[in-house]
Amino acid sequence: MEIVIHHNPACGTSRNVLQIIRDAGYDPVVVEYLDTGWTRPQLQALFAAAGITPRQALRTSKSPAEELGLLDPSVSDAALLDAMLAHPVLVNRPIVACANGVKLCRPSGAVLDLLDNWPPAPWSKEDGALLIDEQGNRLPE
Asked: Beta 95-98 vs 101-104: how paired, if at all?
């Protein structure tokens, strides 16, 4: 199964998701979207497939969203998309796409919903928090 992860290597959640995918035996296509940027059709397709709106995908912390006035609920989806194209960091991450669906994987364990195979148990995130216990059960985050 081909997996594409829209990844920011500076983000702990994104790093955890990428490691989960790799430890599960997949070799994902990694798109470092801060370097490549986005296109409007790409964002629209990802959001539609994930069942989220631009507002739901907006990164509100550690981004210029507040300074740009994007937190006001009256800001349209079109204006949010324009801002995301100009400032790729405004898109929350990581977004994972594969044959099983598209998902904004926050928290990082959300990626398990997309994977046919999981990493071997037990599995811990980079901060040491256990995500999959010794019996292979997913733990709440």
From this structure: antiparallel
Burial string for 49-62 (b: 16+ CB within 10 Å, else e) reads ebebebeebbbeee
SS3 31: strand
Backbone phi, psi, residue 77, to 5°: -60, -40
Question: Annotated catalytic sites, by residue?
Answer: 11
Burial letters for 77-92: b for 16+ Cβ neighbours within 10 Å, e otherwise? eeebbebbbebbbbbb
pLDDT of 85: 98
Alpha-carbon distance of 20 to 130, in angstroms, equals: 12
pLDDT, tens only, 94-135:
999 999 999 999 999 999 999 999 999 999 999 999 999 999
